[in-house]
Amino acid sequence: MITMRRLGSTDLEITPIGLGCMQFAGQGIVTQFYRPLDQDTIGSIVRAAHQGGVNWFDTAEMYGRGHSERALTSALTSIGVTPGQVRVSTKWAPLGRTAANIGRTIDARLTALQGFPIDLYQIHEPHGSLSSITRQVRAMAELRTAGKIAAVGVSNFSARQMELADEILRAHGLRLASNQVQISLLHRAIEHNGVLETARRLGVTLIAFSPLRSGLLTGKFHATPELMRTVRPIRRTLGGFSARTLTRTAPLIDELRAIADAYGAVPAQVALAWLLTHYSETVVAIPGASSPTQATASSEAMNLHLTDAELDRLDTLSAAQH
Ligand SMILES: NC(=O)c1ccc[n+]([C@@H]2O[C@H](COP(=O)([O-])OP(=O)(O)OC[C@H]3O[C@@H](n4cnc5c(N)ncnc54)[C@H](OP(=O)(O)O)[C@@H]3O)[C@@H](O)[C@H]2O)c1
């Protein structure tokens, strides 16, 4: 039995784990992170996540200029999931655009989603737009008021930028639902930069991206370091993939593996279970998957409950990394 989490102060109930769909980009810059997947594989990943109880999917315009949005919704339709049965979140890409572009492109986003409504629409990042954050958030509020989207979120926003976004939305009778930021056992910046404290105070959900630190927390690169050579350059750089990283993080990975063995689980599941428990209600996670087996493993992490002693050991080993 999976306990749902509320998305911000909306009435949307989401599972603690959603599926990250950057892996479905198919084309463009994002394929410098992950190799493109064919539609059959995408279909089996989406089916595995859905069968594992996942009730929401996070995509973005930037993931292949709509390719991920189309691939996701084609996959949902092919497995018999109809609009409204699951939640879909997507993101507006601010780079080189003004806030007016938000209203101008919303119909293109809805077309790419092929009948699935936008339950959460996020500003992908606070930088790169030709307009201020204030104007961007106002344009998002107008979409919400016009009924084009169900909730407004942001991504990669600082604590101060979250405050600003929420203040602007409140002037429209709305609230900020979420901020999508990087969070994992190997990336705990939210605990020190004010984002966690601000999210709790404002009732904003934090959506953890790269919750497996782009795959490092699965332990497969520690077991077979040569695998790092197959990792695409941008992913390798942003994930900090290096021999030094493997050495530094080895004690944490060993502990993940030991705990996983005791439960008949895999390290990735333990890393996700820690994340969902450590930050309690405030944080949900969107692990990505390049195979159905990975999607199944991540969704099953929702049923893994660690003891206080296990959580403490992971906390201590992870804190030593920061
Ligand atoms: N808002 C933003 O700025 C932003 C930025 C980055 C990501 N995101 C979102 O966050 C999602 C997740 O982040 P992410 O994909 O960067 O990192 P992640 O979820 O930490 O890692 C995903 C990768 O880990 C590997 N993996 C997953 N489960 C595994 C398992 N059970 N066993 C072995 N390997 C496993 C797979 O890599 P292999 O290819 O090695 O199989 C998979 O592609 C993305 O899909 C995207 O939607 C958002």
UniProtKB/TrEMBL annotation:
Tagged with keyword Oxidoreductase:
yes
- This entry's Enzyme Commission designation comes to 1.-.-.-
Domain NADP-dependent oxidoreductase, residue spans: 16-317
The residue ranges crossing the membrane are none
Sorted alphabetically, the keyword list is: Oxidoreductase
Q: What class of enzyme is it?
A: oxidoreductase
Q: Name one GO molecular function term.
A: oxidoreductase activity
Top-level taxon of origin: Bacteria
Which PANTHER family has this protein been placed in? NAD(P)-LINKED OXIDOREDUCTASE SUPERFAMILY PROTEIN, NADH-SPECIFIC METHYLGLYOXAL REDUCTASE-RELATED
Q: What name goes with this protein?
A: Putative oxidoreductase
Q: Can you name the source organism?
A: Nocardia macrotermitis
